[in-house]
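Retro notes, item 3 of 5
We never archived the inputs for the magnesium ion complex last cycle. Fixing that now. Sequence and ligand:
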Amino acid sequence: MRVQGVGVGRGVVTGPVLRMPEPLPEPSDRPRSNTAAWESSRAEAALRETAHDLSQHAEHTTGEARAVLEAQAQMAQDPSLLTDVRSRIAAQKTAERAIFEAFHTFQQMLLSMGGYMAERASDLGDLSQRTIAHLRGVPVPGIPDSDTPFILVAHDLAPADTVGLDLERVLGLITSGGGPTSHTAILARAKALVAVVGVGDVAALVDGTEVLLDAAEGTVTIDPSPEDVQTARRRLGRRRSKVPVGPGTLADDTPIPLLANITRADEAPAARELGAEGVGLLRTELLFLDAERAPSIAEQVEHYQRIFEEFPGRRVIVRTLDAGADKPLAFLPVDAAEPNPALGMRGLRAFRGDDSILRDQLRALAIAADSCRADVRVMAPMIADAAETARFVLLARELGLGTAGVMAEVPSAALLAAQILGIADFVSIGTNDLTQYTLAADRQLGALADYQDPWHPAVLRLVRMIGDAGGQSGKPVGVCGEAAADPLLAVILVGLGVTSLSMAPEALADVRTELRQHTLEHARLLASRALAAATPAEARLVMAEA
Ligand code: PEP
Ligand code: MG
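Structure as it came back at the time:
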């Protein structure tokens, strides 16, 4: 049996699946009906089980991960925590509620202490969930613990969970929800994790079921035969690019710099090895997904320096914090009652009332840029028009950053691209959001995944407007959305006036190979045909026929 979803990347992987249990709801605050002694002994037993699980887990782990697990096991047995739980039970709470409240109080206390202790605060939420799961006799929520490798099945993952996936154990990822440009999919691609998202019904995938994941085909084959596996592997072998690593150029030697989308310094060596000519998108919000408080300027400088030092003499385009929607940051809270988070206080809009966090970030970037040899440029997400562009560009310059651009990911920015490029030093097109907002379809909704198609002629027309404005102003127009990683679409984007492409490093080889097959004139001809298409399928046909 085979189910269809949308593949992320092009890999193939086989293995047994493990499902990710759903998060547990907050325990109710009704008074306990058992005796205090009974509830206390349940709570103590559950805490012992939690500590035991974590210690066992630590034994199979090394380095920093081991130290974190050992520290968590100790926290679960902390005598003052136990005293707090007992006194709450004495005050009529159930064991579940007492555990929930005690960990919550402990968490607030660590947060107020700041520094290293505050960083450990988020571990307590995990400990609380684990212990309550033991009390209820249900699976522990979160990424399953397993000593053997598995393919993870989830409805969707939070970006923080995806970043933290241990690739030694998680071989692949299947989600029932989520679209191909959801941040889970983007982060999976960045980790070179084979993933198929938006699969819909995953009821047949019970723990232990063997599956074959083929990302290029977007399929999940249940109980695959040896022939199925062989065929998929052979297809993968044929697809592998054999063009040597080097700068991106067209067949007529027009340079099209190929850049990397990265998040952390440790991704840089692999990106350089794969031929990244610099960084086209550093998503800074992903550095701080776990931070409970806004990072200080000094903390930020340290992060940025580590990344910049990896790219001496190369461009590194840093995007200022793009919090909100599916990437909430605890220190930039938005109104939880916002009915449409993707249309709400997202990106630059999060700083409408108070821009102190943005100012600190720009200051930190300027300090880090001054101390390194990277060619650091900044850009702002979710820019709507020239007035917003002017506000951001002036602020960036005032705070010491010489080159300031904006992302074009809201359709209004494409319509006003000429005005925007009259102010900004460059534009980078975020095709993920540009597609979401042009087609008015939430990029996180698996059920609408077919709308998340940057081949849509409406999206191509907006890219053309930005490309034309770039050509007229003589300023660079990049693409840093997932569209840049599609080798055939990359040719069309160049034909529409795009001058550089930024993508997950693993996509660089295929894009480089395809670009070398076309002159600029040919790319322009193909682009004009794709623009005339009525549907994404028709636009794809242009390249298939070419
Ligand atoms: C985009 O929208 O295309 C983009 C690159 O930004 P993000 O995916 O982080 O929203
Ligand atoms: Mg975006």
